[in-house]
Specification:
Helix content: 40-55%
CATH topology of the largest domain: TIM Barrel
Number of strands: 10
CATH superfamily of the largest domain: Phosphoenolpyruvate-binding domains
Order of helices and strands: EHEHEHEHEHHEHHEHEHHEEH
Shape: globular
Number of domains: 2
CATH class of the largest domain: Alpha Beta
Strand order of the largest sheet: 1-2-3-4-5-6-7-8
Distance between the termini: 25 Å
Radius of gyration: 20 Å
Strand content: 15-25%
Largest sheet: 8 strands, parallel, barrel
């Protein structure tokens, strides 16, 4: 089983604001995303890039993954953004406005040209109608040896804008598309993060949306405010009861009399070997989260 990186909470931080980037070192988010796209006006792009380059190069983010959301590669700023992300040691670049597999391959090519493809991952935003229609093909690039695609991120605000669907509680008009993104991610071993919740003062609404995303199989949620971190971390982590049950299943299958069996009885339930595999993943996630939540 591959090592699991907790990505329960991924906080967007505006690249144009140095104080926000510095504050990210103190927050309990699993991922900090320095944003060079939406939060930086054209006149701020160069300053934002330098802010991010300096902040990430100085380090101090502990076990948090550091990600730079670049401008589209075809924009006047995209190539410089990628170079800055590489230079400052970011763990990944998050690429917006992806439409097709060729867009992912173009970013991979830029990383290879800088000899960075083995140390900088690619995350992509799924936020356009074309991306939603072709998400399976986009995710499939992860199977190509020279494409370090690791994560799909839903851009729900842009999806609503581009498709003209209503933004309503429960996100009914969008649920089918969201499930397709999860399916594509799972088909190619990728993580998938939910889009942002805009009303950061509505704690109940935010928690409901986190629970919905977790039930759909997502790994975490992108955030716009530090106040959202604690709830996301709690909801996207396995509960103590789930972890205890998982450990019990693993222990049961490890008993000498059960090691060669495909199905066993445990506490009045029939448990299959596939449940043991699911249990192993639950324990691996819990252990990874425990390590992440240690003092940094």
């Amino acid at each position: 089983m591959k090592a699991h990186k907790p990505r329960r909470s991924a906080l967007y931080m505006p690249g144009a604001r140095r104080r926000a980037l510095d504050k990210g070192r103190e927050l309990a988010a699993d991922v900090v995303i320095a944003d060079l796209e939406d939060s930086a006006a054209p006149a701020q792009k160069d300053e934002a890039r330098e802010n991010v380059r300096d902040a990430f190069a100085r380090g101090g983010y502990g076990r948090r993954e550091t990600v730079v959301r670049i401008n589209p590669l075809a924009s006047p700023w995209g190539t410089e953004d990628v170079m800055a992300a590489i230079a400052c040691g970011a763990d990944a670049v998050l690429v917006p406005k992806i439409d097709a597999p060729e867009d992912v391959r173009a970013v991979a090519g830029a990383l290879r040209a800088a000899d960075a493809a083995e140390r900088v991952a690619i995350w992509v935003m799924i936020e356009t109608p074309r991306a939603l229609l072709g998400v399976g093909d986009i995710a499939a690039t992860a199977a190509e040896a020279d494409v370090p695609l690791a994560c799909l991120v839903l851009g729900t605000n842009d999806i609503a804008k581009e498709t003209r669907i209503a933004i309503v509680a429960g996100r009914g008009p969008m649920l089918g598309w969201m499930s397709n993104v999860v399916l594509a991610a799972r088909a190619y071993g990728l993580d998938v993060l939910d889009g942002v919740f805009n009303t950061f003062t509505d704690a109940d609404g935010f928690e409901a949306e986190c629970r919905q995303a977790a039930q759909l199989g997502m790994d975490g949620k992108t955030l716009i405010h530090p106040a959202q971190i604690a709830a996301a971390n709690a909801i996207f982590a396995p509960s103590a009861g789930e972890v205890a049950r998982a450990r019990a299943i693993i222990a049961a299958f490890d008993r000498p009399e059960n090691r060669d069996l495909g199905v066993i009885g445990l506490d009045g339930e029939m448990v299959e070997r596939l449940h043991c595999e699911m249990a192993a993943r639950t324990v691996a996630i819990a252990d990874a989260i425990a390590a992440t939540d240690e003092p940094r």
